[in-house]
């Protein structure tokens, strides 16, 4: 009889383990939405979106170099998908409320929000997540993946970026913008 009880306990533990892991993570959210027509998915090597930053300090350049690539998932909003947009936005925001995503900084102005978060520890960041939303344009989540990304260097970098010192090559996003425009059906090129 003891064996049977052990089996039941093991089974319950297995079920619990699965249940706990069914919480959507950012990773699973990406995977689930790659084929979704409302979304645009982009994998960008950092060399593409980080332009010439030779004017930056050695430290800032090192921080930039530690970023390998960005994984971007964007939901361009249009008048046909506003309801889906609100639902997806709520889902992604609840995923990002998880304590394991630690907030680095928040930037926001009227109707626009940008949140920079990270996974891991300050001295060993596994990935940096940038979440941006603007109810007139949609939202985007970028996962910056890299090697031994350094917290303090990245913090400084974010500050430089928000001042406009870091040269981010937005031409890459030009094509991305076109794809987004086609999906959102409005031909404004301010992206």
Q: How would you sum up this structure, described in words?
A:
This protein is 43% helix and 30% strand. By secondary structure, it is an alpha+beta fold. It has a six-stranded antiparallel beta sheet. The termini are far apart.
Short summary:
The protein is an alpha+beta fold and 191 residues long. Helix content is 43%, strand content 30%.
The outline comes out as globular
Hey, roughly how much beta strand do the residues contain?
A: 25-35%
- Stretches where pLDDT is under 50 for at least 5 consecutive residues are 170-174, 186-191
Instruction: Provide mean pLDDT, rounded.
Output: 76
Give the spatial strand order of the biggest sheet: 1-2-6-5-4-3
Structural class: alpha+beta
Distance between the termini: 67 Å
Q: What is the count of helical runs?
A: 7
Oligomer: single chain
Rg over C-alpha atoms, rounded to the nearest angstrom: 20 Å
Count of DSSP E strands?
6
| Largest pleated sheet | 6 strands, antiparallel
Q: Give the SSE order as H and E letters.
A: HHEHHEHEEEEHH
